[in-house]
Amino acid sequence: MLERVKRKLWGGGISMKVPLFFLFLLIGFFPMYILGRLTDRSLRQTQVDSRVMEVQNQCLIISNKMSRSGYMSGDARDSSVDVELDTIADIFSGRIVVINRNFKVIKDTFRLAEGRTHVAEEVIRCFQGESGSRFEKDKRYFALAVPIYDNTEEKNIEGVLVATASTENLTGMAERVSEKGAFFQLMAFWVILLASAALVTILMGPFGSLQKVMNRVADGNLDQVISENAYKETRQLSTAIQNTLTKLKTVDRSRDEFVSNVSHELKTPITSIRVLADSLMSMDQAPVELYREFMTDISDEIDRESKIIDDLLSLVKMDKSVAELNVVQLDINGLVQQILKRLRPIARKRNVELILESIREVTADVDEVKLSLALSNLVENAVKYNVEDGWVRVTVDADHKFFYVKVSDSGIGIPEEFQEQVFERFYRVDKARSRETGGTGLGLAITRKVILMHHGAVRLVSKEGEGSTFMVRIPLNYIPGNRNIPQDNT
Ligand code: ADP
After folding, report:
1. Is 408 a pocket residue for ligand 1 (Cβ < 6 Å)?
2. Exposed, middle or buried: residue 327 (CB in 10 Å: 0-12, 13-18, 19+)?
3. CB atoms within 10 A of CB 27
4. Average pLDDT over residues 86-107
5. Which of 331, 336, 330, 384 is nearest to 356 (CA)?
6. pLDDT digits 0-9 by tens, 163-192
7. Which residue from 93, 108, 190, 437 has the highest number of Cβ atoms inside 10 Å of its Cβ?
8. Which residues partner with 472 through β-bridges?
């Protein structure tokens, strides 16, 4: 769901640079922003606190003076105290109100409330013995209550001095400071923004270079050296890509080789035909027997050409999907018997004895046509690459999971160094002998392909001059898509 939304928003992918950029921006700017806000707030608080202290000190001094002069009790008020109250109120641009025990205002520096009753929270608390202050943040002023004691030893509270002052000019100053801070933060934001963009570009650089090399590869240039070692990840990616490229190159090379082999193989009979036809044409009065002989050779070459084409077509067909296997339950012993029967005439020509050894009766799920072709190739090779009066022994056996077909011969054998290559397309140990016997070099490639399609394996044991044994192992039950069975050793 989230994936779908993302794809909708960003058209299937967003550059890694974007989240990285925002991350750097956040890490760089966020702490600075928080610090700025905190400093700003504590600066305002400190300013107000110190102003409150200052006013409180002044008020304490004057309240002491009022106590000493009996300001609250005396009939005639000391006018110098009044003047002083006015001066102090002026200095901190505030207002001072003196209240007696009856909550009556007896002095107001603003001359507005004299004679009126003034009952406020801080006044009541002050009469109760707690001096207090109140800070109205929104209304931008503070009120401070200071007790005025009488002149006696008991120090009774006779009145309260309430000073109210504006914090406007203080916060104004704090605001100026915070404006400067905001400007600084804005500057810092742009610097961090540019630094984040630069950092992201530098950090993502190696991935960009990898992308460039990959684009060149995509253009068909497979000879790229990919070694981006800036990070462990890019190094691992480079190695993986380099390995893939090496494999691609191998496939590319083997395809080229195959195409050149195919053209060569197909050209050989055509060249022979051309030579035969040309030599016949160059003769003025060729005898009929010669014509017949040359025409027989031409016909043989045509047969050979068509066999190569047939074999190639079989291989190409098998390169397609495994689903094309036409699997049926089949009597394997019967199948092998049929193959031997078909090949007996060829074997007889060379006086090679064909022996069938059925250790167990086997029925298995196989593609009859393809398996018959694969096993025929093995038996045919065993006859072809045999010696006069030799033998070929085919053994059929099975266990609870697999059936085994072993084709042994008393033939010329295959030297150890060629044993892997004989399964490759067009590979022949002795080209001349293979041609002589009508081989195309594709037989074993076809055999191995068919066995692998059946999820089986084929193994070769051979000794030069003594003979060869091809061992085939195929699962009794064919399970489509089952590839867990080891494929290259029996
Ligand atoms: P070909 O059409 O030449 O027989 P194959 O693919 O069937 O092609 O075999 C490849 C090569 O392997 C043969 O040319 C031959 O040299 C060798 N070979 C195959 N089977 C045998 C065998 N039973 N004994 C000796 N050599 C063999």
Report:
1. no
2. middle
3. 11
4. 89
5. 336
6. 988 777 666 666 777 788 888 888 989 999
7. 108
8. 405, 458
Report the C-alpha gap between 434 and 385 in whole angstroms. Answer: 9
Expressed in angstroms and rounded, the spacing between residue 403 Cα and the centre of ligand 1 is 24
Q: What is the enclosing helix (H) or strand (E) of 142?
A: strand 141-149
Residues 31 and 192: beta-carbon distance below 8 Å: no
Residues 316, 449: contact at Cβ < 8 Å? no
Output the pTM of the full model.
Answer: 0.57
Split at pLDDT 50, 70, 90, the class of 357 is very high
* Kind plus residue range of the DSSP H or E element containing 473: strand 467-475
Residue nearest to atom 14 of ligand 1 (CA): 428
Q: Which residues contact 469 (CB under 8 A, 6 or more apart)?
A: 406, 407, 408, 409, 460, 461, 462
Cβ pair 153, 77 in contact under 8 A: no
R_g of the chain, CA atoms, integer Å: 53
* CA–CA distance, 239 with 229 (Å, rounded to integer): 10
Q: What is residue 487's predicted lDDT score, i.e. its pLDDT?
A: 39
Q: Is 379 exposed, middle or buried (0-12, 13-18, 19+ CB in 10 A)?
A: buried
* Residue 475 Cα to ligand 1 middle (Å): 25
What are residue 165's DSSP bridge partners?
A: 94, 142
Residue 262 neighbours by CB distance under 10 Å: 16
Report which of residues 265 and 388 the model is more confident about.
388
Query: Across residues 316-324, what is the average pLDDT?
Result: 67
DSSP 43: H
Distance 14 CA to ligand 1 centre (A): 57
- The C-alpha torsion from 9 through 10 and 13 to 19, rounded to 10°, is -100
For ligand 1, the distance from its centroid to the CA atom of residue 418, given in whole angstroms, is: 10
pLDDT digits (tens, 9 = 90+) for 463-485: 999 999 999 999 999 988 655 44
> What is the phi/psi pair of residue 462, to 5°?
-150, 150
Q: Is the CB of 55 under 6 A from ligand 1?
A: no
Which SS3 state, helix, strand or coil, does residue 156 take?
coil
Closest ligand 1 atom, residue 427 Cα = 10
CA of residue 336 to ligand 1 center, whole Å? 20
| Strands (DSSP E) found in 300-345 | 327-331
Closest atom, ligand 1, to C-alpha of 386: 24
Write the pLDDT tens digit of every residue in 18-27: 888 889 889 8
DSSP β-bridge partners for residue 148: 159
Cα(422) to centroid(ligand 1), Å: 6
Whether ligand 1 lies within 6 angstroms of the CB of 414 is answered as yes
Closest listed residue to residue 246, CA positions, set 222, 229, 227: 222
